[in-house]
Design a protein that fits this description.
With about 475 residues, the chain is α/β, with parallel strands linked by helices. It has helices at about 15, 25-30, 30-50, 60-75, 100-110, 130-140, 150-160, 185-190, 205-210, 240-250, 265-270, 275-280, 305-315, 320, 325-340, 340-345, 350-355, 360-375, 415-420, 450-460, and strands spanning about 5, 55, 80, 115-120, 125, 145, 165-170, 195, 215-220, 250-255, 285-290, 300-305, 380-390, 390-405, 425-430, 430, 435-440.
Length: about 475
């Protein structure tokens, strides 16, 4: 070990990079990242010494390089433990995929695949043929198309059905979605002309009827999936709109949004329209997300009548909006689970989390509580509520339990929360009235042990 007391004692970079202690890092990450981190750490130490800092050693310099390299080369997109109780947490990637879907993705991306190759004919195939057939069978519709998200589905549908024509939509349904994107702006990019009717809180059937003219190409119904409109309100049901569509010969497009498909989920969310209910009304086109209440990967489903799907399927915009092989693999695995409702409920994380037995959740939470209390952590078990999130079923609260940690007098909830974010596996919790709340509904049971260990490391270290 060499003591470094002044800038003159600093090792030369080209010599330092050859230290035997750095060989492991170079083998793991390559020479260039280790060289860059070494340069930065030597420069930082030089600045500290010039400012009068105490002497350091080559060992501490090597330790700094190890830390810098490992930090700079660690993945920026990381697995986290979501204990917020928000199931479809948009900032945390919404719900995890089923293991079968994750396995399918891993298999497809690790080798070649028949993405656009017909194994029977030995000729080029269409990448979504098989998935579209599965969608037709499972949803019971004439035809189907899948794109990369629901907003893309809206854009593509209107471009194919109503470019340079009018689409009638209620003013109260022109919502803003995540990231400050507004559905009216997305719709306008399709080339369709939006004909807004009614007022923010009230729209009547006569408003639709009076707006129809020779320029009208379609009627559009948008489910308000991310906010509630209560009080002095009125809207036209999808059933009444379908009758008007049949009467006028106009296509009715239903942007369902969240895409609830499981009957068991429907029982928990009675006010959330389901895909089956939408199909049963006989609407011409139904659009919804794959990664919300359907519990699959990010995708946009477009289901409906073949004559309209054909226009969408062969529109030029489909190419830039198409899904990749990873999405197709995950979708196929998820759809196969939905072929058996029991398998879907047992294996799709969204359904597992939403429909979890409350007593099971209490027992898991109690075990975590006992583990924390054994180590002197001030904590309690409290009744709470979880939410769907992700712009789905606003106002719906699911009974739950929270393990609630009260920081010691030397601690603060904000400081502990920041420390949890910096753990090897970051933990994302909630702070309520200066206490940390942990809802185990939104992690797998097998992750409880990891969560407990991380909490003990952070809470005991910061005490």
């Amino acid at each position: 070990m060499t003591i470094i007391s002044s800038p003159r004692d600093l090792p030369q970079l080209d010599e330092f990079i050859e230290y035997e202690e750095l060989q492991e890092l170079k083998d793991r990450y390559g020479r260039a990242p280790v060289l860059e981190s070494s340069r930065i750490c030597i420069d930082n130490l030089r600045q500290r010494l010039l400012q009068g800092a105490a002497s350091e050693s080559t060992d501490s310099l090597l330790a700094a390089v190890f830390e810098h390299v490992n930090l700079s080369q660690s993945p920026k997109l990381r697995r986290v433990l979501n204990v917020t109780g928000t199931i479809l947490h948009t900032n945390l990637g919404r719900a995890p995929l089923a293991q079968a879907a994750a396995d399918a993705v891993a298999e497809i991306v690790s080798s070649y695949s028949n993405l656009e190759y017909d194994l029977d004919s030995g000729k080029r195939g269409y990448r979504t043929t098989s998935i579209e057939k599965m969608m037709q069978d499972i949803f019971g519709v004439e035809a189907a198309v899948v794109v990369n998200n629901n907003a893309a589905g809206v854009l593509l549908t209107l471009a194919a059905i109503a470019r340079d024509k009018e689409v009638i939509v209620s003013r109260g349904e022109l919502v803003e979605i995540g990231g400050s994107f507004r559905i009216p702006e997305v719709m306008s990019e399709s080339g369709a002309k939006l004909r807004e009717i009614g007022t923010t809180n009230k729209t009547h059937l006569k408003d639709y009827r009076n707006a129809i003219n020779e320029e009208t190409a379609a009627l559009l119904k948008v489910h308000r999936s991310n906010f509630l409109l209560e009080g002095f309100t009125s809207e036209v049901s999808i059933q009444d709109l379908q009758l008007l569509a049949e009467e006028t010969g106009l296509p009715l497009i239903y942007d369902l949004g969240s895409g609830s498909f499981s009957e068991a989920l429907g029982a928990v969310l009675p006010n959330e329209p389901t895909v089956k209910e939408a199909i049963d009304t006989g609407v011409d086109l139904i659009l919804f997300s794959g990664d919300k209440l359907f519990g699959g990967p990010q995708a946009g489903f477009i289901l409906g009548r073949e004559k309209y799907i054909a226009k969408i399927k062969y529109h030029p915009l489909l190419r830039p909006l198409r899904v990749d092989k990873m999405t197709l693999a995950a979708l196929e695995a998820t759809l196969r689970l939905y072929a058996d409702p029991n398998k879907a409920r047992e294996n799709i994380p969204l359904l597992q989390m939403t429909l979890i037995d409350l007593e099971e959740l209490r027992e898991r939470s109690s075990r975590l509580l006992a583990r924390l209390q054994e180590h002197g952590i001030v904590a309690s078990l409290e009744e709470s509520s979880s939410v769907l999130g992700g712009g789905s079923s606003p106002g719906v609260q699911l009974p739950s339990y929270n393990v609630v940690v009260t920081p010691a007098s030397s601690q603060s909830a904000q400081k502990l929360d920041s420390a949890l974010h910096q753990a090897e596996t970051p933990v994302i919790a909630r702070i309520v009235r200066e206490r940390l709340h942990f809802d185990l509904r939104t992690i797998r049971a097998e992750e409880d042990e990891d969560l407990g260990s991380i909490l003990l490391n952070v809470l005991k270290e910061d005490k």
